[in-house]
Each structure stands twice: as structure tokens, then as C-alpha cells.
Specification:
3 domains, 13 helices, SH3 type barrels, 300 residues, alpha+beta, two-stranded antiparallel ribbon, Arc Repressor Mutant, subunit A, 6-stranded antiparallel beta sheet, 46% helix
Length: 300
């Protein structure tokens, strides 16, 4: 059995997700009540198979690390006390606390640090656009960039990585195989200092998003250009159909939060099959996540 998620053949993943999310609440509900609510939901929604209560209790204990259970049900302070407690005998602890063991191992570890160029790349937005014929000039939000190397790419789609907070800075341009073509300079006067300033006033006021689980409404601005594309790149979504499905999710209420959480579920399912994330898998994960969030609100 994989840690953190039971074999789908043994328990319907939707039922398992609901059971775990209900049991890990800070209100610390008892397992029996969580099992009862999950079985009621499974009967109502037609989920199956559902193992016995004894089996599910055993899987809850085996699949979820103690630190996760303590942090979720008792709070971060309790988790900190758990990690600081000495006398641990498992693994390499040799009587020390988890914190002391980690500190020693971390001090001995060789930690790779990103270069200045990598840090700058992380801050850049990415956008796929067509280089304008005949010159190959690039335009995004009124800002224009050009370099002689772009002439050979006129009319083709390229990836532009640029600083969304400083549109007058050079932009890095990559071809379809993600090879660097050039660093193009901004041409003429840039009408806006940043991508935020280039947005219509109604968008700069912010977009009301879904109510958070902790009971108050939050306000988030619209995702910056290229954010969804960058997330797809980070998850290695190379299949065209899967990528289009992911970008469509980013346009739903919740935007990038919806996309990331759906990718997490789809990735677990794909790992269980030994395959890659697919468009069908993303759609199924989104439907299951939406259903389970509704049910989780009911059991609260």
C-alpha cells in the first residue's frame, strides 16, 4: 500500500478523501463519527467499494504520519512539541528528538542554492505569443521588444519571459523547443510600467474569490500573465490535450488554487496507474474535488 493513499481497489478514493479530510479537522472528531458520515455520503452518492470500519481505522493509522495527524488535529504547537520530544529510538534518532536529528543531518548536507540567474528566472512571467511579421517584433500589454535574431522567427510562436513589474527591461525569447533565441530590448516608450498597471481598472480592483475554509472571504487579484502556463511547466504537462484542460481549470472560480489542487489529485491517480496526467484524469479529479468539498461542508 502506498503511504498517504490506499489502493483504489480497496476503497473508493472519493470516500477515502472525505474520511481523511473530516478526521483531520482541528475539532478532532472521533473516528466512529467520521466513518458514519463517510458511509452516509457513500450510500447517497453511490460510492464503492467501502472496506470495513476496522480496515479503515487501520489504514488511517498506517497511511498518515503521526506528525501530520498531530499538526492537523491539535495544531502546529502540538506538532512542534512532538518533534522536540527527546528519546526517539527509530531510524537514526538514537535517543535524540526529531528536531535535533534533523538539525544535525541538515548541517552535514550539501544544499544546492539557486544562482542569481535562476532566481531572476523564477520571478519572470511567461507568455506564448507570435513574433510579428516581417520584423519578428514581440508585443505584450502594449510593451514591445525586438532583436535582430527575431527576424528569422517572424510569424512563429515563441515563449517570452519578462519581468511583469518592469516592462521596460529586456525580455528573454525562447523557441518552440525552449531554446533561448535572444534577449530582446524594449523598443520605443513603454506605455505602462508593469503588467498590473496595464490591466483594465475593473480588473485592478481585484476579483472576489471563494470563501476560505477558515471562515472569512479573501480577495485575490487575477492571476498574472503566464502563471497558469508556468504551473503546467512545473508539473511537466507536455500532452497538448492535458495542458489545454489544465489552462481551462485556471479560468474557473478559484483560478490557480483550483488548478494546483486538481493537479495534486490527478497526479496521485496517475501515479497509481503508473502513467502521466491526462485531460480525462484532470476532469475526473476536478469533479471529485468539487463533490468532496461540497460534502465536507455538509459534515461540518
Amino acid at each position: 500500500m502506498r503511504r498517504g493513499r490506499p489502493d483504489p481497489a480497496g476503497c473508493d478514493p472519493r470516500a477515502w478523501d472525505l474520511l481523511v479530510s473530516d478526521w483531520l479537522r482541528p475539532e478532532q472528531p472521533c473516528v466512529a463519527a467520521c466513518l458514519r458520515r463517510m458511509r452516509d455520503a457513500a450510500a447517497r452518492e453511490g460510492w464503492g467499494p467501502i472496506p470495513s470500519d476496522r480496515t479503515l481505522r487501520r489504514r488511517l493509522e498506517a497511511a498518515l504520519p503521526r506528525a501530520v495527524k498531530v499538526a492537523a488535529r491539535e495544531g502546529l504547537r502540538a506538532a512542534a512539541r512532538h518533534n522536540a520530544r527527546p528519546g526517539r529510538k527509530g531510524g537514526v534518532c538514537a535517543g535524540r528528538s526529531f528536531d535535533a536529528t534533523f538539525a544535525e543531518r541538515y548541517a552535514q548536507a550539501v544544499v544546492a542554492r539557486p544562482t542569481a540567474a535562476q532566481l531572476r528566472l523564477f520571478r519572470l512571467a511567461a507568455k506564448r505569443v507570435a513574433a510579428r511579421p516581417p520584423s519578428g517584433e514581440i508585443e505584450i500589454a502594449g510593451a514591445r521588444w525586438w532583436h535582430p535574431e527575431l527576424v528569422a522567427h517572424a510569424g512563429r510562436r515563441v515563449t517570452v519571459r519578462f519581468d511583469p513589474d518592469a516592462l521596460s527591461r529586456p525580455a528573454a525569447v525562447y523557441d518552440a523547443d525552449d531554446r533561448l533565441i535572444c534577449e530582446a530590448e524594449a523598443v520605443a516608450d513603454v506605455p505602462f510600467d508593469s503588467l498590473e498597471a496595464a490591466r483594465p481598472e475593473r480588473d485592478r480592483d481585484g476579483l472576489a474569490q471563494i470563501q476560505s475554509r477558515i471562515g472569512y472571504r479573501i480577495l485575490r487579484r487575477a492571476p498574472a500573465a503566464g502563471d497558469a502556463e508556468a504551473i503546467c511547466d512545473a508539473w511537466g504537462l507536455e500532452d497538448g490535450e492535458a495542458r489545454r484542460a489544465a489552462l481551462a481549470l485556471a479560468r474557473l472560480p478559484g483560478a490557480l488554487r483550483t488548478l494546483v489542487k486538481t493537479l495534486q489529485i490527478a497526479a496521485l491517480d496517475a501515479a497509481g496507474r503508473g502513467g502521466a496526467i491526462t485531460a480525462a484524469g484532470l476532469r475526473a479529479a476536478h469533479a471529485r474535488r468539487a463533490s468532496n468539498e461540497d460534502l465536507a461542508q455538509e459534515v461540518r
